[in-house]
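Quick check before the chapter quiz. The format below is the same one you will see on the exam, so make sure you can read both the input and the output lines.
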Amino acid sequence: MIQRVKTFTKFLLFLALGIFLLWLTTRSFGENEIQKLKDLITHADVKVVIFCSITLLFSHFIRAVRWKMMIDPLGNQPRTFNVFCAVLAGYFFNLLFPRLGEVMKCTLLSKYEKVHVDKLIGTMVAERLVDLICLIIVIIMTVFTQLDLVGNYAAELTTSMKTKFQFSNTALIIITGTLILCITILFKLLHVSKNHPKLFKLKEIIKGMIEGLLSIRKVKNIPLYLIYTATIWFCYLASIRIGFHGMENLSSLGWVPSLSVLTFGSFAMIATQGGIGAYQLAVQKTLMLYEMDAVNGLAFGWLLWLVQTLILFIVGPLSIMMMYILNKKSPSQ
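Here is the expected output.
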């Protein structure tokens, strides 16, 4: 019960922050600017929006195929369809509650493919580490290709993040000491687990998670895995580049601004629940670096966010339903 209250409170805080940021982006707009914002979004090229949506869905499919490559060495070979549906469902649940999607996609896949949840969670953590490395590479590319333009913006963002998450040396020592103590206690408990059924179960769960985490070492085709990873991030980049053609005033922008939007937009998606408010603001501020006015920048931020979000609100529940129907007809052996 306490955990549910904490989760709901976290959701409300993230949502409140998102709503505040939405207000912040439009508080200086007059009626004419608000109307222009609505017109830009509602009159966006439908063909471009559809093509952008297909690109994002393709990136999710490639992510599913890449995840399957990590699951296969664990002794199970889940069907690609089920993995794809689990990935889409995971993104959908992430829109509802922070990090819920990571647990739900592992739970769904475990239910229909008989793969241990702890191992799946381990592979999911490994995936997140790979994506973090990719994001760092994207950040480096963005800064070094446009040092004079986005360098100061990136520096301001980094400084604000450092200020927000700054720890004193004493606090850092306390946290490190506590972590070491917890690890020591955990190893002690696992050492005596043979005589304690519950501790033995805990040990098995931890072993499964570690096995999943290290599954990347057992991937049969590492070059293909890296190609899939690059494809995922290229699709993210391409969806932005394609999206520019959805608004006439932004159609002249190319790959370099797309890279900047991808970088700062990725940070924003983490900042609030589903990126609401933060993503629109980040895209707006980024495009203003390229001499786009605030209204056009905010409209494009809204367009991209709506495309990403509405897709998941449609395909997420649909994927859950399809998994149930098709696996009921043809259960996993």
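If your answer matched, good. Residues 160-169 have pLDDT under 50 and may be disordered.
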